[in-house]
Amino acid sequence: MVDVATTPVPGSGERVAARRSRSLEDRLLALPPAVLGLAGTLIFLLVWELVPALGIIPAKYLPPPSEVLPVFARNLTYVEFWAAVWDTLQGWGLGLAFASAVAVVAGLVIGGSTLLRRLTASTIEFLRPIPSVALIPLAVLLFGVDLESKLLLVVYASFWQVLIQVLYGVADVDPVARNTARSFGMGYLARVRHVVWPTVLPYLMTGLRLGASVALILAVTSELVINNPGLGREIALAQSSGSYAPMYALVLATGLIGVAINTVFRAIERRVLAWHPSVRAEVAR
């Protein structure tokens, strides 16, 4: 006779394991985000250390972090390193500022007119997908290896990120609010200030954050390819001389700059959009 009380129910083991797994995940999710982020970084460094140690990639071409991190720390004490960082950030900042200013004005003007929107739609859709690196020959012909060639690539790449977001924002303006403003006799600038701008602002902040990342990529790319002064040129010089640990230390520096830029823009976004429901919900979590 079968003892029903002690006979395992088919599938019960999997359900128990699933409950244990979910409880472990819940306990991990209860940890502070900074702790989880640190754990993820340590796992990444461990994998990086193991890849050359196991011979998956020769250590000559991928030095382990135990070799790269000391070089990175030494770089922080060199004036030449900080000069290269400044050159990269200078091209990034000037290009992003100019592109953002032009894109905001163009987006408000084009987005506010149905005729202009239809006239420019095909041109924007044609120009926007062109990779900025395709303009490198033109940049070299026009400006050589001067700062202007880097700015041309940075401006072109980040301009579209901001412009498209501003156009989305203008298109999202409530038509009832727009018509009500017109019926109250508000002028164009007043409507932009009080009706259009509050709707556009969240889109603009997203565009600026995306544009900032793309601008950094193009700044380093121009330094790598055109030989503009900056971290990209230092990476190319280290690679050509076979100094792979210093090369990865510089790559690590560019990655950390990207993280810092994204963090700063996220903080600005939270402050500027503190009134917006999406930011308030994010802060509440």
Textual characterization of the structure:
α4 packs antiparallel against α9 (188-225), α6 (136-143) crosses α7 (147-171) and α7 packs antiparallel against α9 (188-225). This protein has twelve helices and no strands. Helix content is 79%, strand content 0%. With 285 residues, the protein is mainly α. It has one domain: MetI-like (MetI-like fold), CATH 1.10.3720.10.
Any chance you could write out the topology, listing elements then pairs?
Blueprint: H1 12-29, H2 33-53, H3 65-75, H4 79-111, H5 114-127, H6 136-143, H7 147-171, H8 175-183, H9 188-225, H10 231-240, H11 244-272, H12 277-284
CATH superfamily: MetI-like
- Number of helical stretches of at least 4 residues: 12
Distance between the termini: 55 Å
The CATH architecture classification is: Orthogonal Bundle
Residues in helix, %: over 70%
Largest sheet, in brief, is:
none
InterPro entries: MetI-like (IPR000515), MetI-like_sf (IPR035906)
Organism: Ornithinimicrobium humiphilum
Main location: membrane
Domain ABC transmembrane type-1: 85-269
Quick tags:
285 residues, 0% strand, 12 helices, MetI-like fold, globular, single chain, 79% helix, disordered N terminus, mainly alpha
